[in-house]
Amino acid sequence: MNDFQRKIIQWYNLNKRDLPWRQTLDPYRIWVSEIILQQTRVDQGLAYYERFIARFHDVRQLAEADEQEVLSVWKGLGYYSRARNMHHTARRIVQEYAGVFPETCHQLLRLKGIGKYTAAAIASICSHEPVPVVDGNVVRVFSRIFGIEAMAGTTASFNKVWERSSALIDRDDPGTYNQAVMEFGALCCKPANPGCGQCIFRNDCFAFGNQMVDRLPVKKKEISRRERWFTYLYVRVGGGKVLMQQRPQGDIWQNLWELPLIEADHLLGPAEVSAHPVVNQGGELEEIIAVNPKDYRHILTHQIIHARFYEISGYQTGEAFEAGDYRVMEDPLVTGLPVSRLTDRYLHWRAGNMQGL
DNA sequence: AACTCGGGGTC
DNA sequence: GACCCAGAGTT
């Protein structure tokens, strides 16, 4: 056993957090946890993991559910393709693998939603395959300790970190080794204000020795964000129902539901909304009865969404909309329909402020 | 290799 | 406001 793995595993045994997916070696549960934790902090994913496992106990239950149910459990977590891919892969595992997860990293890699990181994580934890994981934590820890200066996120960086970790991995317990490096990155070797003072590698760390801790790993330039303007219409149809539509393919929030949307290069004023076809489609001009007082500013990785919500009074001929893209449905708050965080925020605000209307 | 896909915690 | 999180799929 080399010095690095001995020290990091000892540190891990003393400092690791008590997390539910560390109580099992069930590939299904490890898989669920790894997908949830993609680009997601442990604190944020924890409740979702508990809910997901409670609702879908095993891969067969997940395979038997419809996608809408899976998306509903995922609602608010973001990167919804993870949920769609999991559902797809669950069905494939049941049909092609008789419900038994593949064991090797190579086989796992062929499943939708499972990339290099997740394949290595599942294989090393569940099957003791000695393959290193390379995630944001591992890149940071290795870049600092060993002075890897390749820009984070590039294949050069990935390959150098992978080679280093591959040479140091504990071949008897690769799963614990991998989790130890990640946990160390999450708790000690943090992006900002790392705990170098009490770090077990402070005498060996390249970055610490060269005062480069704040410059490693080398970060890539900030991405630009596209601005978009969404004017949403809460159209009350009658009987407590409202018009809804499903998000299109190839855009954000694919397959989630939302209110009728007018996207333009600005947020629409009341006059523009009144003149809009959606508002007049019932045959006569309907009345705008409310607008949320403050426009929303919803920030995604590559987009800034400006949003405004109008509430429009009762059509009695909602059936007219069934022919188009719109559907007459119960308020999504009641039905648990999968909606974006933006829509969810508005609906909750409305429920708390519009009781009299 | 570059882009896109969410949402939120942290500094 | 910038950064970045137990990344993956598409182009």
From TrEMBL:
InterPro entries: A/G_AdeGlyc_MutY, DNA_glycosylase, Endouclease-III_FeS-bd_BS, HhH-GPD_domain, HhH_base_excis_C, MIG/MutY, MutY_C, NUDIX_hydrolase-like_dom_sf
CDD domains: ENDO3c, NUDIX_DNA_Glycosylase_C-MutY
Top-level lineage group: Bacteria
Coiled coil: none
Sequence ranges assigned to domain HhH-GPD in this UniProt record: 36-187
Cofactor-binding details, from the entry: Binds 1 [4Fe-4S] cluster.
PROSITE patterns, A to Z: ENDONUCLEASE_III_1
Catalytic reactions of this protein: Hydrolyzes free adenine bases from 7,8-dihydro-8-oxoguanine:adenine mismatched double-stranded DNA, leaving an apurinic site
Biological-process GO terms, alphabetical: base-excision repair; mismatch repair
Cofactor(s) demanded: [4Fe-4S] cluster
EC number: 3.2.2.31
Gene Ontology molecular function terms on file: 4 iron, 4 sulfur cluster binding; 8-oxo-7,8-dihydroguanine DNA N-glycosylase activity; adenine/guanine mispair binding; metal ion binding; oxidized purine DNA binding; purine-specific mismatch base pair DNA N-glycosylase activity
Keywords, in A-Z order: 4Fe-4S, DNA damage, DNA repair, Glycosidase, Hydrolase, Iron, Iron-sulfur, Metal-binding
Function comment: Adenine glycosylase active on G-A mispairs. MutY also corrects error-prone DNA synthesis past GO lesions which are due to the oxidatively damaged form of guanine: 7,8-dihydro-8-oxoguanine (8-oxo-dGTP).
Family statement: Belongs to the Nth/MutY family.
Stated name of the protein: Adenine DNA glycosylase
